[in-house]
Automatic annotation (TrEMBL):
Pathway: Amino-acid degradation; L-histidine degradation into L-glutamate; N-formimidoyl-L-glutamate from L-histidine: step 3/3. Binds 1 zinc or iron ion per subunit. GO terms for biological process: L-histidine catabolic process to glutamate and formamide; L-histidine catabolic process to glutamate and formate. It comes from the Bacteria. This is Imidazolonepropionase. Signal peptide: none annotated. One of its GO terms (cellular component) is cytoplasm. HAMAP family: HutI. It comes from Micromonospora polyrhachis. Fe(3+) binds at H76, H78, H233, D317. NCBIfam families: hutI (TIGR01224). Residues 68-382 form the Amidohydrolase-related domain. The gene is hutI.
Amino acid sequence: MSPRLDSSLLVDNIGELVTNVAGTGEGGPLGIRRDAAVLVEGDRIAWIGPATYAPAADRRIDVEGAAVLPGFVDSHAHLVFAGDRATEFAARMAGQPYTGGGIRTTVSATRAASDDELRANVARLHREALRQGTTTIEIKSGYGLSVTEEARSLRIAREFTTETTFLGAHVVPAEYADRPDDYVGLVCGPMLRAALPYARWIDVFCERGAFDADHARAILTVGQAAGLGVRLHANQLGPGPGVQLAVEVGAASVDHCTHLSDADIEALASTTVDWTSGAETTTVATLLPGAEFSTRSPYPDARRLLDAGVTVALATDCNPGSSYTSSMPFCVALAVREMGLTPAEAVWAATAGGARALRRDDVGVLRPGALADLVVLDAPSHLHLAYRPGVPLISQVLHNGVPHHE
Ligand code: NIG
Ligand code: FE
């Protein structure tokens, strides 16, 4: 149901409001206000202020002193697939390494699935994510790996989000195993053309065993010239050229960043907003702790990135192989426990950081004019997300101004 444009809703009696507007109240970048209220008109925030001065509204939700945050922005997810790889996970927990080789298993299952089966799976995961507070989600293709299959995945993804990413260069499919150059040609030509009506972003898995820096550069450059924004999977399984390539091509985000050299961190720290033109040139480092968790890999050193001034985002990487979780609260807890982030840094990275990684200024932040995407916690403070891991603390979700009900 879409909200009546003239309808207003007051979220009242908020004990702790995380706005992500730096300089507001306490909490540095979290911009925390106490005893606040938020007025929503249509799908946008119209007013934020002290609860005592709250204006009248058509409807009112009293959150009774709970914490309220911007909805989570999950900037990295692979939701269009069929089947699962639970047996592969069990083998890993018994000592097998993760190599990405299982991607082809999911490609076969995805190609064999009907549109309705794929759509139902995306709907299930999308619902699961929303229930856990995710109000913006990026969805990649990458388990089709042919012209028609990649277009089909993106068409289905587009039914759920505007943040769609063409990942035809996930791996080289089996039928092109002996001629990777031909596959890159296909991705850069007919596959890209078929993807364009449905995609906002282009992505490549730049890693030994997937695509090298030359192939990745060729694909990203042609995608960029066709009007797509650029993001990259890099430095997941080992050190490599991906992070620096991402900076070179002006990617909005480089994701995984598990194995980083000093030069990688320096390159990321050199990206920033160009204040003369106002252009956003920051390359965000998007960390995916669910992948390290599910592949038993070392976690990236997020502390080093933050101390160097790099913008960090957190995302789920939800996919059936390396990270089958849709839970941003779980990723926040992992980032705090395993990657050296403070609870405040992790909450910022999962909301405002994700928005930066998608170059959006209307989500991940609570200010007049932003989308009314709000999460109410069953807790008095954002600290509880990491402090109470595994507990379903998301009590209410407002998405585009509309309360989400199961
Ligand atoms: O981001 N690294 C490449 N792609 C996915 C994993 C895909 C899979 O194993 O199915 C990732 O981890
Ligand atoms: Fe991924």
